[in-house]
Design brief:
The complex is a heterodimer of chains A (about 110) and B (about 375). Chain A is mainly β. Chain A has no helices and 11 strands. Chain A has one domain (about 5-100): Rieske [2Fe-2S] iron-sulphur domain (Rieske Iron-sulfur Protein). Chain A is globular and about 35 Å long. Chain B has one domain. In chain B, helix 4 packs antiparallel against helix 5 (about 80-90) and helix 15 packs across helix 20. The chains are: A mainly beta (about 110), B mainly alpha (about 375). The interface between A and B is medium-sized, with 19 and 23 residues.
Chain lengths: ~110, ~375
């Protein structure tokens, strides 16, 4: 069963941008594409653990700010080296102006 | 330090590598100027137009110069035509390789990748090994034992640096590597940086390239003419001198084993022709701090961060007035390097300003 955790309102990106946030002791990233699509993923690049919240959201992908590796936001698939391992994505939804992410935890722990 | 010791010190799997990893220099956090996110987003934005325009000029002028050279051949009047062609093929392709390798030059991915493949062929750089080597260069810029792109060691291999103005050392090495790769092998240094899953791409590209070069040489023999070699492959040698002149300004003579690009990279202001050939890579500190900013936005990035940076060099000549004496001095004293001054109010240097090294006896 999905357990939806509300993400802080300061952590919701503008269209075409990404923000980072922490949940438990891990970094995550929340993306809003230019057409309004909302996505959530692990916060660090699978190549060398660079924070993706400093990266570029464009045309449905996130580009790592350090080595320009890219991941498809709809699937997490690594689409440009040096990123060759896929990014873990999480279900995300917006309801009543609030954003919720399902981290796959057993219990909600809050952002 | 003897010749062999020096080479061993710069190897990617030697004592310097162990030291870099153990002391936290590998894959470390580097200094970045603080730029408001909206401004950075604006600077990172991609567009196809500037790079399509510049690529059309690059290829267009190269074709015209090559055609004029062939038309005037074997007269000496063909020489200036081939010099223009050679610089566009052998030098301008370096910056095209670099920018498209980062994926920042074009917004459209297939155009970027196509130009990357062309530029790799012109520079004789395997598209896969060099992509991974350059990633490492950005992770570990001038970290000894980690960075595979250190051009000028301390002390410098002066003969190699000089001969490479015409690719005399690196060109044959790259041709030899093509043969190595085509037979399904990598060097030890390449195995350090290229993941297993990517290696088949290395072998495939170099097999195709060897066929192209074999066809070029066969054409030259068949037609009893140097022209095929002057047009294909040759410019990697006779036209590469400008690339060397530009590239040595990036890091030569500056600090090793530091974690702040202001200590190991230069910003060199260039005239419009050099900026076109080099695609603004004179803004090298800025590029290393923010590799996602495309070349056509680097002058704006420079304006945004210049309060944190040492004064830029006003010309290539000004940079060499510093580089040459520094390299000469390093022949006698390999511990010497150029220390840059920050302007008042700049963010302080991050990490060890003098570099982090094991005891002098080891170095």
């Amino acid at each position: 069963m999905a357990i939806w955790v509300e993400v802080g309102t300061d952590d919701v990106p503008e269209p075409g941008d990404v923000v980072g946030f922490r949940h438990g002791d891990r970094d995550y990233a929340l993306y809003r594409t230019a057409d309004g699509g909302l996505f959530a993923s692990d916060g660090r690049c699978t190549h060398q653990q660079t924070l993706l919240c400093d990266g570029l959201v464009m045309d449905g992908f996130i580009e790592c700010p350090k080595h320009n590796g890219r991941f498809e936001l709809s699937t997490g698939r690594a689409i440009r080296a040096p990123a060759i391992r896929d990014l873990t994505m999480y279900p995300v939804k917006a309801e009543g102006g609030r954003v919720y992410v399902d981290f796959g935890d057993d219990e909600p722990t809050g952002p | 330090m003897g010749y062999r010791d020096r080479l061993k010190w710069y190897e990617l799997s030697g004592p310097a590598t162990d030291f870099a990893v153990e002391s936290g220099l590998a894959d470390a956090e580097w200094f970045r100027s603080d730029i408001p996110r909206p401004k950075l987003r604006e600077l990172m934005a991609r567009s196809d137009y500037p790079a399509i325009r510049d690529t059309a000029i690059w290829i267009g002028v190269a074709i015209v110069a090559a055609a004029a050279g062939v038309y005037l051949w074997p007269s000496w009047w063909s020489a200036p035509c081939f010099i223009v062609y050679g610089v566009l093929y052998g030098s301008a392709s370096d910056s095209r390789w670099h920018e498209t390798g980062h994926g920042t030059a074009f917004r459209t991915r297939w155009i970027d990748e196509s130009v990357y493949q062309i530029a790799c062929f012109c520079t004789m750089r395997n598209p896969t090994t060099w992509r991974w080597k350059h990633s490492r260069h950005h992770s570990d810029t001038l970290i000894v034992g980690r960075d595979p792109e250190i051009d000028v060691m301390r002390p410098a291999r002066l003969a190699k640096v000089t001969l490479n103005l015409f690719g005399i050392v690196d060109g044959p090495v790259q041709l030899g590597l093509m043969v190595v790769h085509a037979t399904g092998h990598l060097t030890r240094g390449e195995r350090e940086v290229v993941p297993e899953s990517e290696r088949v791409r290395v072998y495939r590209a170099d097999r195709v390239w060897l066929l192209i070069y074999a066809a070029t040489v066969a054409s030259a023999v068949l037609w009893h003419s140097w022209l095929p070699v002057i047009l294909v492959g040759g410019p990697r040698f006779y036209g590469t001198f400008m690339e060397r002149i530009y590239s040595l300004t990036q890091h030569a003579g500056l600090g090793e084993n530091v974690l702040d690009h202001r200590l190991n990279s230069r910003t060199v202001l260039m005239n419009p022709l050099n900026r076109f050939i080099y695609w603004n890579m004179g803004y090298h500190i800025e590029h290393h701090m923010f590799p996602m900013v495309p070349y056509y936005r680097l002058p704006e990035l420079h304006e945004a961060v210049k309060g944190d940076l040492p004064a830029p060099y006003p010309s290539i000549l000004a940079a060499y007035r510093e580089i040459i004496p520094a390299i000469v001095r390093q022949l006698r004293d390999p511990t010497y390097f150029v220390k840059r001054e920050l302007p008042p109010g700049a963010a302080p240097f991050r990490g060890p300003v003098d570099g982090l090294f094991p005891s002098a006896a080891v170095v």
